[in-house]
Design goal:
The chain is an all-alpha fold. The protein is 70% helix and 0% strand.
Length: 162
Amino acid sequence: MDAERKNQANKLARECMVTALMLLLKEKPLSAISISELTEKAGVSRMTYYRNYQSKEDIFSSFLEEALTDYQREAKELSLDQHAYASANLFHCFSYFEKHKEFLDSLFKSGLGHLLLTAISRYVPKRVNILLRMTAYRIKVLAGQTLDYVRKKHHLRPCAIT
């Protein structure tokens, strides 16, 4: 029980740091944000920061990994078709990105959009039906299309793809 409580506290601290970073990025570039400023805004200690991250960029990478894990869990719960291009999968994908719009905007504002492309490229092969056997090229195309959608500030609404 004690380990579960520590895990929940650690998750809350990470969420606070993500939120604080997004708020600070509205005021100044990533390079101008100090660790002390970030931890103060998040309401956590520097020790908590360093226990979870090695750099400010790690906050983005870690959040992306958690978000993709949550996305995969949601897709499994929704029993979505394993085919990556099925309309239900695409709708879920773009809806999920819409839900994280502020985070993604902060990611691009910081010049770290490549982290999203990398995370998607790692995620897609895990998600795609083995029978489909997507080539590396197709994986990069799907990841690039998703990145392009996010970069263009979500002009296409998820409901437009169904």
